[in-house]
## 1
Amino acid sequence: MSDDSLLKERFNKAVKLALEMDTLPPDIMLEFYAYYKQATKGDDFSFNANQEQDLRSSFKYNAWMQLRGISPKKAQKEYIKLVEKYTNQKIS
């Protein structure tokens, strides 16, 4: 199995675990969100100005923008680290 395939598999496992987690503090949830978006969308930022721009959406967009320039692979690795940290489980 290639390194890219293994990373993608680990990332997908981490996403599943994250979805099963209990609610975390908002700042940690923003970190999860930002790394997920960077891992799946890269620097392809989008913010629909036609939608009602509430404070929550602005915070999420800002958190993602702070990761600008980080490769999707690095974002996947960081997301995995976050999940491992907050679930106390090693993802292999």
## 2
Amino acid sequence: MCVESEPTRVTLEVWHPGCWTIETTEATDVGILGRVVSRTTGARSKAFVTLYADRRRDLDDAVETIRTFPQVHTATEVPNSTPEAVVQGSKPGNATRDLLIEHEAGSQISGAFLSRDFVTAQPVNTHDGREQWNLLTMRTRRDVRDTLDTIATAHDAEITVSSLARTTNTAGEAPFSITSLSARQREVFELARARGYYEWPKQISGTELADELDIATATLHEHLHKAEAKLLGTP
């Protein structure tokens, strides 16, 4: 793989078949912010998403719709979990609702991007049947386009590049050095950020995070300490 000295920002519009987020936004008047996606055991993944709409009843319709998809195993509401900064920065509708969803891994295209050295710079915003992706990578422009063509072919997807440019301005986004984390460290760290663990005051405790991940609290802190050391460049 050819790499650049500075990260490349890639913004995309994506459609792919069998995606419950895309189909939900086609069937209901909601948008969906995908904030954390992680692989779990076997062929299942977990997604932490925020639904947004102009009316609360639209959110009810969307939750009911999500639970009808065969590729969705569970859709659990998570009350009061959206950090204020995320809500304001994403400019959702008048009403929001957070869900923790366990689903078939193949129903989402996120793994295809993350496994090919792309990092999500902002939440994936799905509305009106299309996903809006904002990614960072060290790949060259030509390599990016070749890789996106490979992903589109493999997933029978439609991928439109909205913009593609090198950038050093990643303020307020996921740290680019997050690519140095292991898959498990990234999963734990991104969930901690999304749930407000690093807010002041904290919006979730380490014990609550550990329970959600089904790991010991000591293990959670070990993952977070290692992730923080890598991101801060400390030994």
